[in-house]
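Subject: Sanity check before I submit

Could someone independently write out the structure tokens for this chain? I want to compare against mine line by line before I put it in a report. The sequence has 216 residues.
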Amino acid sequence: MDSRMIPTRFTETHVGDMFVVRNAGNLIPHAHHFQDEYFSCEPAALELGCVVNDIRHIIVCGHSDCKAMNLLYQLKDPEFASQQNRRLSPLRSWLCTHANTSLEKFETWKKNGMKDPLHFSSETPMKNFVAYIDPEDKFAVEDKLSQVNTLEQLSNVASYGFLKRRLESHDLHIHALWFDIYTGDIYFFSRGSKRFVAVDESSVDKLSEEIRRFYS
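---
Independent answer below. Compare away.
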């Protein structure tokens, strides 16, 4: 929901090309948070886009200097994340509820030196992928958390039963983009390269081939 993010501009798309759902932290709540008839906007939008309108590609897009991710990083402090403070702040409550798995994964990785690969699940529980986060150490620690959080949402998307059949039959695909606010660079998560790769003249052909081969 950051006003500096204009998806149609950096993807060069037009009216009718995309459904866009924006929220604080680019979070897709995991299905286990919802019971009976209580849902939030995000799963409803997934059903509208992917079931009703037959969209074949879901793209989760994070970005640098994300104020929600900056706050999430501060929520590693138990006092700051206390129930009393969550009751005073809808944003803290939203992040503690739906982004805590991202923070826990990040904190474990950080304690281990931030060099090891991380493991994520995606379209199905048995389909995992490996990710090296910012191996060149170019970004701030909160931006590294933002990239981890972006990838964590892929498994959250796949947690919804109404998407299961299409995901298992490879009729629906989930991708991750990450946008650097300050440079304008767009990064696509390449499962072949196991990292976010900047989309530029040197990489676009290889990335396009990866998409054609695995996601067409």
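---
OP: Matches mine. For the report I'm noting this point. The first helix runs from residue 7 to 10.
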